[in-house]
Amino acid sequence: MSTLRAILKTNKGEIRIDLFPDKTPNTVANFVNLAERNFYNGLKFHRVIADFMIQGGCPLGTGTGGPGYKFRDEFDSSLKHNKPGILSMANAGPGTNGSQFFITHVPTPWLDGKHSVFGAVVDEKDQAVVNSIAQGDVMESITIEGDTSGVLAVAKPFLDEWNQILDSKK
């Protein structure tokens, strides 16, 4: 699959994130699909914990909302919460991934095997924006750079179901 990069535009600046479609294809496809549907536009970072992480992707702004569906975890032994800037799915236990995600401020190894890692910030400049985010800051938009057709094709059976659910909520 091709290299994919997400550009997360916030009111504090842009965060560039390299995605891992070869190792977590369904998780990346979910994120790409929601981004391409403008699901994240205008949502707030509803949970920010100093020296831990920033969390967003809840349409309710409370941490209790999602896209209307849940999907299974994807773990790859090479993807760890071993440094700042790891992009991972927030969840409420196994198999409860939806639209919420977080980006770490520090290594968080206790999250390995519990939260699906599917990307990492590109460099220190991007991490500085992550570190500047405060609770209530806004995701203005997420754009995806690269050819998404491969990862979306792999996840097509899931995407068809997810998009039907998303379309029914309009």
From TrEMBL:
<protein>
    <recommendedName>
        <fullName>Peptidyl-prolyl cis-trans isomerase</fullName>
        <ecNumber>5.2.1.8</ecNumber>
    </recommendedName>
</protein>
<comment type="function">
    <text>PPIases accelerate the folding of proteins. It catalyzes the cis-trans isomerization of proline imidic peptide bonds in oligopeptides.</text>
</comment>
<keyword id="KW-0697">Rotamase</keyword>
<dbReference type="GO" id="GO:0003755">
    <property type="term" value="F:peptidyl-prolyl cis-trans isomerase activity"/>
</dbReference>
<dbReference type="InterPro" id="IPR002130">
    <property type="entry name" value="Cyclophilin-type_PPIase_dom"/>
</dbReference>
<comment type="similarity">
    <text>Belongs to the cyclophilin-type PPIase family.</text>
</comment>
<dbReference type="Pfam" id="PF00160">
    <property type="entry name" value="Pro_isomerase"/>
</dbReference>
<feature type="domain" description="PPIase cyclophilin-type">
    <location>
        <begin position="13"/>
        <end position="157"/>
    </location>
</feature>
<keyword id="KW-0413">Isomerase</keyword>
<dbReference type="InterPro" id="IPR020892">
    <property type="entry name" value="Cyclophilin-type_PPIase_CS"/>
</dbReference>
<dbReference type="InterPro" id="IPR029000">
    <property type="entry name" value="Cyclophilin-like_dom_sf"/>
</dbReference>
<dbReference type="InterPro" id="IPR044666">
    <property type="entry name" value="Cyclophilin_A-like"/>
</dbReference>
<dbReference type="GO" id="GO:0006457">
    <property type="term" value="P:protein folding"/>
</dbReference>
